[in-house]
Design brief:
heterotetramer; A mainly alpha (about 325); B alpha/beta (about 375); C alpha/beta (about 500); D mainly alpha (about 325); A: about 325 residues; mainly alpha; ABC transporter involved in vitamin B12 uptake, BtuC; two-stranded antiparallel ribbon; 15 helices; D: about 325 residues; two-stranded antiparallel sheet; ABC_transporter-like_CS (chain C); ATP-binding (chain C); AAA+_ATPase (chain C)
Chain lengths: ~325, ~375, ~500, ~325
């Protein structure tokens, strides 16, 4: 009796109605999750029809390749977004640091394993420090901004403002090589995206990271160690940046201070254009990769059209804004 | 030695000869114009201060420039103060205001505008202090000529011309190697620096000027940044679009983007140094492409040398009693030792920018580089920092 | 002279939140607006405040149709709403909050300060500094500021949406006083409440909504509570509070679950003692600020214990954080469960399974399907409808959301449940459900310690009552030994002979 | 009140400490000329920070200020040959209209302002490059007196400094003494509650973003006039400078808090470091380490003093889109 009454108060729908509404709900959900795909598909189709050379295999591989670096960094940085700490503004600086540490260790004659280990250890430290500060309650945007600034200054100072060029590049195969015609960078990107996606939905750590972003207060009350998760998220972002740093060193055999100019903005744009809820708590990591792809595709199309740099930037900003607005409106409708 | 490399060497010799002649005549002109004080003047500045207002040395080229300038200041007994901005004109303007306002003014200012050709009002205010102002690295705008005593540094137009000559040599070698040009002039891709960066425009003009006799067919002009990674990114996205037309030559504004382009071309299955020739006229940091002869030719635009030269021009200005000669002076590209600069500086003082043509034979390339010398220093000394 | 609601309807897509609601409310009287969550009250309030535009229908004041299409126009038409969720801006001072709703574009702080002073005095907040940010006031004080601000607007129609839901007795009396004065001034007062005893105390007439329609109207003077409940839930509600079941204790002196001895915290002036048996439900009662939530928070590890000992199932226990508390098998629900009780944008089952997930540690795999299935049993026990388990918690009604936020703890098999205000924001029907569920859990051996300002709840649902006054535990009595009046005397005077 | 005082005291103390250290350690720091230059730059950066503060107080963030400043400066200088005054007016009007539009979109769609304005940052930079693709727009010789006029010394500052400070203080007065100003804080404190209190939130957002854009435009135009040129790639650092000054000035990114005096002190702290670095001929990498550390220290100190505590739960990062609870 009482149970029925509760249903009256809360549900107020008959079974068939609720099934119907559930069906509608799931349609809305899938529409929502497809939202970032829609612009990609649209752009892709239009471009393939209208622009000669766009739909060619080499060009598409070039697009994936060009989005790989941004994408890999975005996968790591997305952990910060998902755990509810917005984005890191120190991605560029972390990548530069990694590039310098890696080349420096290699150029003093250490084996590649040592260089990789050193780079990753430095990344873990960098990530842990930032994560600790943010977990203490400092504003994540400003903390990473300040930390990045100090980090960059320190690296440039320590490197004595020099470019380090490798005579022998042990990571050339990874940074520049191809497997079955696909650039290895792109392979790494896709593998990481898959790993990350599975990680978030199929591990305790991943699921708790998502919950922590969804509502940190509730997460804390049920005993989820949110500080630790925040630190882990920052470490993973730093590790992804470090990987990006090493991959690019593998590709170009050198470390220079301005080699990642603009990466941070690209990564932030990729995360947001992909549609990862910026408030956190939405565990769809693949969106970060999709975002990177959309952005690269946009610039690729404009490049194929032979547009001038100014026009290209203008369109890039405008289109990104349009995608963003369309997605925001769609998401609100589906709620 | 196969046929193609001999042709390449001939072409090289021709270029070197031609540019030597050009430089020689210019320097003779300059010498003739000035009074002939042949005596070795001591350039002692007596510890006076030279203030350099320039963008940040977090960029390796600028850092090397400062090292050269500091060496030069030490030789001539000047105290060098570098005030850096973060590639930001507003910051440079405030720094200028601040420095101008101080009671102790330096002996000279060296002005390297943050934003190419910008900051004209700050330059004017610098010149009003009465302290001589010398501009470095970025060519003096016509409107700003009256505020600047002299210019010392690279000439981007000249650099473009050298690149043009390199490209012509590459074309000759390309044909001689039995490759077929995709168009009468040969298809060319230009990788410029970044949008709005005027050095890129000047170099492009210089290149066009040097090749106007038999112009290349430019199939794409793309921004390839300053470093390998940017060059790679630009080229790899460009290739699918233009490949069908045939890519014969790539002109990169410096070796950074060229090295990236080499990578991108190789990944696309093209063979730099075989069926596509790449040239530049500025070596920077990474010499792997030129060393493996995947890049056909480059030029030595040495950051350290430029910095040394800029301070030297200032020192000579004072040593000669504040004298400036009219016209342009291009410093000779002497091989074994730095030339004796005994004459007063000219209005425009350009550092040498000798071409380095290694051709297409990877085995010979290191030798060519090893044999190269400018002002007594090797290719590596100038280009690796 | 009255406010008339004329055939008001509002639908969201296919769902009708209001359908053809008509009633009138006279000036000079307090009209209660009753109904369960989801009955359409809040939609009506939103329409009146201009936040929602009705699909059909009109609102008339004194015979003239008024415009409430935007919040701005609504307030210009003379309608002022005290929202259920307090709308005083926490980052602004009291004066600034007043100035926000003032008509002038230029601020005159000194004048505004003295003006709002007068209104605050009328509500008994005379000793509060008007320059203080309202965020630093207590919830009750904020509610009064809110009402004061409304008074200052010189509104003709005043809508109060559960103004006393979060208040203690002293504050409630203040609010009632204020409401009576407003009515006496000849205003239309619409008073929404879940506290049925408020009906007789201050309301003259009542309108009951059910399923978006008017279910009943009556004068409160000649109405029984039973009729009210019948009108609200559509059926009679026999037992709000479930009876204590057959506790499975072999002998009367079963081992204690929680023992507090000489417990003190920074928020208490005296020490607290308690011996909580398995299966027992104990209430702490007191006015806001009397320290009655302190023992819960100390056991929960939210506030630090400064002296005394806590023993959980015979073992010394002093949690430094929520993790340690959870692993000791203690569940805690704060009063503001809208804020920290669940994950609003995630599906219900994720909230339900979260404590178990957290308890399983960070390392290892987690199968979503299995987690989802594991919550079915809990959801059944909490009687959460099947259709809702995959939906976002946000989409649930208040009562169901409360069940989720309490029920999630079952995934963790706790020994002890600490709940602040177990039924805050829960309507009558769902409230019985929450009691029933907690009772049945207790009957299976769970100990429950809850803090409440609702005296009926304390007496009806608690087996024993810890009474707090002036930040001291003054007495612990079996609920059966108390009456509502006695308890009220205890908590207001700290003794039984007021 | 006491919380405000603590933040103010902290910043005042730090400024004085820095000034004393620099006066002792840095040759040429303790001169009127250096002071004038510092004040001038405080005014310039303060304009940006004050604009950012408008949006930050309203719980949003306008990340496009640098590009807005660049485009406005270019418009003003391109129109300079016809009439500089006209150019400036047109630039300001364009910036204002742009800001209104952005504010309207954000209010209506609930889109994350940070993301939208990052898009604008990119797009408007493109516009700047379209307007002046190669050589920058320069101030004609005949107009260089404007530039000199701006840096002419007036007591402890310059004409530019006075213009900037007057505008900033006027803004501060406006925020304190008008209902609109109060509404900004209200919206930043809690959007829904502000709406419930009868605040027209759309209007508030439009005002905030229009104000931010116009202040950025003013700063951009002043900077361009001072340097006599405006290029397509110029004024890039404005965003970072402005945000740094605002954050050192204690403006909370959570919204609802921030005061002009603190922002001015924040700008002062940042500029003292910059001035000392310039006078010492310090490497820019050292300067960026110093700036980063000061920022971190500021955050930690604020945190320790509790000036940022207390309201974290109330307002949740509206800059990132709709709040958690709608």
């Amino acid at each position: 009796m009482v149970a029925a009454m509760v249903d009256l108060s809360g549900v107020r729908t008959t079974a068939s109605q609720s099934a119907q509404s559930k069906g509608r709900g799931s349609v809305a959900v899938s529409l929502q999750s497809l939202a970032p795909i829609a612009p990609i598909a649209l752009i892709f189709v239009i471009a393939a029809v209208a622009i000669p050379g766009f739909a060619s295999g080499p060009n598409l591989i070039a697009v994936v390749q060009a989005s790989a670096i941004t994408g890999i960094a975005a996968i790591g940085a997305a952990a910060i977004t998902i755990v509810g700490k917005f984005v890191s503004l120190a991605i560029e600086q972390q990548a530069v640091t990694a590039a310098y540490v890696f080349t420096a260790v290699l150029s003093i004659g250490q084996p590649v394993a040592v260089a990789v280990a050193a780079t990753l250890i430095v990344a873990v430290i960098i990530g842990a420090v930032q994560g600790y500060l943010v977990a203490r309650g400092l504003n994540p945007i400003v903390t990473t901004l300040a930390f990045g600034s100090a980090l960059f200054g320190a690296v440039v100072l320590l490197s004595n403002n020099r470019t380090i060029t490798l005579r022998h590049n042990p990571l050339a195969w990874l940074g520049g090589g191809t497997s079955w015609g696909v650039p290895n960078q792109a392979v790494v990107f896709v593998i990481l995206l898959a790993i990350g996606t599975v990680f978030l939905s199929h591990t305790r750590l991943g699921r708790q990271i998502v919950l922590c972003g969804a509502n940190p207060k509730a997460a804390e009350l049920i005993g989820i160690p949110i500080s630790r998760l925040v630190i882990i998220a920052y470490i993973s972002a730093a590790l992804a940046s470090a990987l990006v740093g090493m991959l690019v060193v593998g590709q170009v055999s050198q470390a220079s201070s301005n080699m990642f100019d603009g990466l941070t903005i690209d990564v932030v744009a990729a995360i947001l254009v992909g549609g990862i809820a910026i408030q956190g708590g939405e565990g769809q990591l693949w969106r970060a990769g999709v975002g990177a792809l959309i952005l690269t595709m946009l610039s690729n199309i404009m490049l194929l059209l032979g547009l001038d740099a100014g026009v290209r930037l203008l369109l890039k900003g405008g289109l990104a804004a349009a995608v963003l607005l369309a997605m925001t409106v769609m998401r609100r409708r589906s709620r | 030695m196969n046929q193609s490399s001999i042709t390449a060497q001939n072409a090289t010799r021709r270029i070197v000869k031609r540019s030597r002649r050009y430089l020689l005549s210019l320097s003779i002109l300059a010498l003739a114009a000035g009074p002939a004080w042949a005596a070795d003047l001591p350039l002692s500045g007596g510890g006076k201060e030279i203030v350099v207002l320039m963008p940040s040395r977090s960029n390796a080229y600028l850092a090397q420039w400062i090292r050269g300038a500091e060496a030069s200041a030490k030789e001539d007994d000047y105290k060098l103060t570098v005030i850096e901005n973060n590639f930001d004109q507003t910051e440079q303007d405030s720094q200028t205001e601040q420095r101008i306002a101080l009671p102790h003014q330096p002996a000279a200012y060296i002005w390297w505008p943050a934003d190419a050709r910008a900051g004209i009002a700050s330059l004017r205010r610098l010149s009003r202090t009465g302290v001589p102002v010398f501009q470095a690295n970025q060519a003096v705008q016509p409107a700003a000529k009256k505020y600047v005593k002299a210019y010392a540094g690279v000439d981007d137009f000249f650099n473009g011309q050298i690149a043009g000559q390199n490209a012509e040599a590459a074309r000759a070698a390309f044909v001689a190697a039995g490759n077929k040009l995709s168009s009468p002039g040969g298809n060319l891709v230009i990788l410029k620096f970044i949008p709005g960066y005027s050095a890129g425009d000047d170099r492009e003009r210089g290149f066009m000027d040097a090749t106007k006799g038999k112009p290349f067919h430019v199939i794409a002009t793309e921004y390839g940044g300053f470093d390998n990674a940017s060059g790679y990114k630009a080229m790899s996205q460009l290739i699918p679009r233009i490949r069908g037309q045939g890519i014969d030559f790539v002109y990169g504004m410096s070796d950074g983007p060229v090295t990236g382009a080499v990578q991108a071309l190789e990944e696309a299955g093209l063979k730099p140094g075989k069926n596509v020739y790449l040239v530049s006229a500025t070596c920077i940091a990474d010499i792997s492409a030129i060393k493996s002869a995947k890049e056909f030719a480059t030029g030595v635009q040495a950051a350290g040398l430029e910095g040394w030269f800029a301070v030297n021009v200032v020192a000579r200005y004072f040593a000669h009693g504040d004298k400036i000669l009219p016209g342009t002076y291009i410093a000779p590209a002497t091989v074994d030792a730095r030339p004796q600069f005994t004459e007063p500086p000219s209005e425009v003082n350009i550092i040498p920018n000798p071409p380095v043509v290694v051709g297409t034979n990877a085995a010979d390339a290191p030798k060519v580089l090893a044999n190269f010398k400018l002002w007594g220093q090797t290719f590596v000394d100038h280009c690796v920092y | 002279m009255m406010l008339e609601i004329l055939e008001l309807s509002k639908s969201y897509g296919a769902v009708a939140a209001l359908s053809g609601v008509s009633f009138s409310a006279e000036r000079g009287k307090v009209t209660a607006l009753l109904g369960e969550n989801g009955a359409g009250k809040s939609t009506l309030v939103k329409i009146l405040s201009g936040l929602v535009v009705p699909t059909e229908g009109k609102i008339a004041l004194d015979g003239h149709i008024i415009d409430t299409s935007t919040p701005d126009r609504a307030s210009k038409s003379g309608v002022a709403v005290v929202q259920q969720e307090i709308s005083v801006l926490p980052n602004l001072s009291i004066t600034e909050n007043f100035m926000l709703t003032a008509p002038s574009a230029l601020l005159r702080r000194a004048k505004a300060a003295s003006a709002c002073r007068a209104y605050l005095d009328r509500l008994g907040l005379g000793d509060v500094d008007v320059g203080r940010p309202t965020g630093s006031l207590s919830v009750g004080e904020r509610q009064l500021v809110e009402i004061a601000r409304m008074l200052a607007q010189d509104a003709q129609v005043l809508v109060l949406d559960e103004p006393t839901a979060a208040l203690g007795d002293r504050d409630i009396a203040l609010v009632h006083q204020a409401v009576r004065r407003l009515a006496a001034e000849g205003k239309v007062v619409l008073y929404i409440t879940h506290r049925l005893n408020e009906l007789e105390e201050i309301c003259e007439q009542a309108v009951v909504l059910r399923n978006g329609q008017v279910a009943d109207r009556f004068a409160t003077a000649d109405t029984s509570i039973a009729r009210v409940i019948y009108a609200m839930v559509g059926r009679e509600l026999n037992e709000l509070y479930p009876a204590v079941g057959n506790r499975a204790e072999p002998d009367g002196s079963s081992a204690s679950n929680l023992v507090l001895t000489g417990l003190r915290t920074a928020g208490l002036l005296g020490s607290v003692d308690l011996d909580l048996k398995p299966g027992e439900i104990v209430a702490t009662a007191g006015q806001i600020g009397s320290g009655f939530v302190e023992p819960l928070r100390a056991v929960a590890g939210v506030t630090a214990m400064t002296a005394g000992t806590m023993r959980l199932q015979g073992k010394a226990y002093s949690p430094r954080n929520h993790r340690e508390r959870c692993s000791a098998g203690v569940a805690y629900c704060s009063a503001d469960r809208q804020l920290d009780g669940f994950f609003p944008d995630r599906p219900v089952w994720e909230t339900m399974s979260a404590p178990a997930l957290a308890a399983s540690g960070l390392w290892g795999s987690a199968n979503g399907q299995r987690l989802r299935r594991s919550t079915d049993r809990l959801a059944d026990r909490m009687t959460i409808s099947l259709a809702y388990r995959d939906r976002a918690v946000r989409a649930l009604s208040g009562g169901n959301a409360q069940k989720v936020s309490i029920g999630k703890w079952l995934s963790n098999d706790p020994q002890l449940l600490l709940v602040e205000e177990p039924t805050r924001g829960v309507d009558v029907g769902a409230r019985a459900e929450v009691y029933r569920v907690i009772r049945s859990l207790a009957d299976q051996g769970l100990s429950v310690l809850f803090a409440s300002t609702d005296l009926d709840e304390v007496l009806g649902f608690g087996e024993r009552v810890m009474i707090f006054h002036n930040r001291r535990q003054v007495e612990t009595l079996p609920a059966s030994a108390l009456t509502r009046d006695k308890l009220a005397t205890w908590i207001t005077h700290g003794s039984c002979n007021g | 009140m006491s919380r405000l005082d603590k933040g103010l005291g902290l910043r005042l103390g730090l400024s004085i400490l820095l000034i004393v250290i620099c006066a002792i350690e840095v040759d040429g720091f303790a001169t009127m000329a250096t002071l004038a230059s510092i004040v001038e730059n405080v005014a310039l950066i303060g304009l940006l920070a004050a604009g950012l503060m408008l949006t930050m107080v309203a719980g949003q963030l306008d990340a496009a200020v640098a590009s807005v400043a660049a485009v406005s400066a270019i418009i003003a200088l391109l129109l300079g040959p016809y009439s500089l005054v006209l150019g400036i007016v047109v630039a300001l009007v364009v910036a204002g209209l742009y800001g209104c539009g952005i504010g309207w979109i954000i209010a209506r769609t609930g889109v994350s302002s940070l993301v939208l304005t990052v898009c604008m940052l990119i797009g408007l930079r493109g516009l700047a490059l379209i307007l002046v693709p190669q050589s920058p727009a320069v101030l004609a010789d005949g107009l260089l007196w404007v530039s000199d006029g701006l840096v002419a010394r007036v007591g402890p500052t310059t004409v530019l400094g006075i213009i900037g400070l007057v505008l900033i203080l006027a803004l501060g007065l406006g925020m304190r003494c008008t209902r609109l100003g109060l509404s900004l804080y209200a919206v930043g404190g809690n959007l829904e509650r502000a709406r419930g209190s009868g605040v027209n939130t759309t209007k508030v957002y439009m005002v905030a973003f229009a104000g931010s854009a116009m202040l950025a435009a003013t700063a951009g135009i002043l900077a361009a006039l001072r340097s006599g040129s405006a290029s397509g790639t110029g004024l890039d650092s404005f965003l970072l400078d402005g945000v740094t000054a605002a954050v050192v000035g204690g403006v909370s990114l959570e919204g609802g808090r921030g005061s002009i005096i603190n922002v001015l002190l924040g700008s002062l702290i940042v500029r003292i470091i910059a001035a000392a670095a310039a006078l010492l001929g310090m490497q820019s990498s050292v300067e960026s380490i110093a700036t980063g550390c000061i920022l971190l220290a500021m955050l930690l100190l604020d945190d320790a003093l509790g000036t940022r505590r207390g309201m974290k739960t109330a307002a949740r990062w509206r800059v990132l889109g709709r709040p958690l609870r709608t």
